[in-house]
Write a structure and sequence with these properties.
Shape: globular
Order of helices and strands: HEHEEHEHEHHHHHEEEEHEEH
Strand order of the largest sheet: 1-3-2-10-11-6-4-5
Structural class: alpha+beta
Strand content: 15-25%
Radius of gyration: 19 Å
Number of strands: 11
Largest sheet: 8 strands, mixed
Distance between the termini: 11 Å
Helix content: 25-40%
Number of helices: 11
C-alpha cells in the first residue's frame, strides 16, 4: 500500500489499487465479486465502482478469462477521483450521470451501535462520521437505519449460496483450460498450493428453483428496506478498519493485532449479493492511511450513484497523494 508500505492494499484487485494510488497509472479496471474493487479503493484512497449485476449486467463479461460464473463477478473501474471513474464508465456504457442536488438526497446511515462494533476502528469511525457531517451540512438528509440487519441478510448462508450460483467455478476454469490451453492442468496452475474449494463439486447444491426463490425473497427485502426508510442510497465505511499490517508470514493483522482477511466484516458484500451498484470514495485519512466511504443504491441506479459521487467529491475534497517510502 503506497500510503504505508508495511500495509496491505486490499484484495483481490490489490495490484490495481496499489499502482493507481502510487501514481504509476491513472486508472484501471478491476474485478469485483464480493468487494474486490471497492476494498482496495477504500484502503488505497481511490474511487471504485461495482456496477449493477441484476437483472442485466451493466458491464459486459467480454474480456474475462476464463468467463465468470454466476452474477457475482463483474468488471469495475478504479481511479484516483470519482470524476475519472465517471469518465471510464461513460466510455464503457455511453451514459452520462445526471447532476445531483445534495439537498434532494436521503441517505441511510448506520445506527449508533454500529460505530461501537468490536471490529470498528475508532479512527475509521471518527473520519467517517466527520465526512457524513460535512454531507449533512451540504444539505444531505441522513437517516439512521438498521444497516446491520441487511448485511446479516446478505451474509446469511442461504443468500450466500444462492448468490454464488452453487459454486463449481473451478470446474469451469478446468474446462476453459482444456479448451484454450491444452496440456495445462489445474494442478499446474496451482502448483504448490491446494486446489480452490470451487474446483470441488458444491456440497448440497441448491436447485435452480430454490436458488431463485431465495434470491427473490432477499431482493424484495432489500427493496423494502430502501422504500420503508424512504432513502435513495446507504452509506457506511467501505472497511471498518484501516489497511491491515502485513506480517513477514503474509498474514494480515489489524491495529489490535487480530488476524484478519481483507474481506472480514465487510458490508461491501451487501451490494454484491443484491446485484446493486456500490461506489467507494475517499473520505479522509487516519494516521496517514486512507478511509473509504461507500454508497450503495438499488440495481440500475448506477448513473445516479455516480452523479451522487461527483457531488460528494466536491464536498469532501481530495486526499493528498501518498508520501514516498512511508512505512507506518
Amino acid at each position: 500500500n503506497p500510503y504505508g508500505t508495511t500495509r496491505a492494499s486490499g484484495g483481490s484487485s490489490a495490484g490495481n489499487g496499489g499502482a493507481i494510488a502510487a501514481r504509476i497509472v491513472p486508472a484501471g479496471l478491476g474485478e469485483d465479486s464480493t468487494g474486490s474493487v471497492r476494498i482496495p479503493a477504500g484502503l488505497c484512497g481511490l474511487a471504485g465502482l461495482r456496477p449493477t449485476t441484476r437483472t442485466t449486467k451493466r458491464y459486459s463479461d467480454d474480456g474475462f478469462e476464463p468467463p465468470p460464473t454466476g452474477a457475482l463477478k463483474t468488471m469495475g473501474p478504479m481511479a484516483r477521483t470519482v470524476a475519472d471513474v465517471v469518465f471510464l464508465d461513460t466510455v464503457i456504457t455511453g451514459e452520462t450521470p445526471p447532476t445531483v442536488n445534495l439537498r434532494d438526497v436521503r441517505i441511510g446511515i448506520p445506527r449508533p451501535d454500529y460505530w461501537t462494533w468490536e471490529v470498528m476502528d475508532p479512527g475509521v469511525a471518527e473520519v467517517t462520521q466527520a465526512a457524513l457531517a460535512k454531507l449533512r451540512d451540504a444539505g444531505v438528509q441522513l437517516v439512521e437505519t438498521d444497516i446491520q440487519e441487511m448485511v446479516k441478510l446478505a451474509d446469511s448462508q442461504e443468500v450466500s449460496r444462492a448468490a454464488g450460483g452453487g459454486g463449481g467455478g473451478g470446474n469451469m476454469f478446468a474446462q476453459w483450460l482444456e479448451e484454450n490451453l491444452p496440456g495445462v492442468t489445474m494442478e499446474q496452475v496451482y502448483a504448490g498450493y491446494p486446489l480452490p474449494d470451487a474446483a470441488q463439486p458444491p456440497q448440497n447444491p441448491l436447485s435452480p428453483e430454490e436458488r431463485q426463490a431465495t434470491l427473490q425473497a432477499a431482493y424484495a427485502r432489500n427493496e423494502e428496506f430502501f422504500k420503508s426508510n424512504n432513502i435513495q442510497a446507504v452509506a457506511f465505511p467501505t472497511m471498518p478498519y484501516r489497511a491491515p499490517v502485513m506480517e513477514p508470514t503474509g498474514k494480515l493483522v489489524d491495529e489490535k493485532g487480530r488476524l484478519i482477511l481483507t474481506t472480514d466484516y465487510a458490508a461491501v458484500r451487501w451490494a454484491s449479493r443484491m446485484g446493486s451498484p456500490g461506489l467507494s470514495v475517499p473520505s479522509g485519512l487516519i494516521s496517514g492511511l486512507p478511509v473509504g466511504l461507500e454508497f450503495d443504491a438499488l440495481p440500475g441506479d448506477d448513473s445516479w450513484l455516480l452523479g451522487l459521487g461527483l457531488a460528494v467529491e466536491r464536498v469532501l475534497g481530495r486526499i493528498p497523494p501518498p508520501p514516498l517510502n512511508r512505512a507506518p
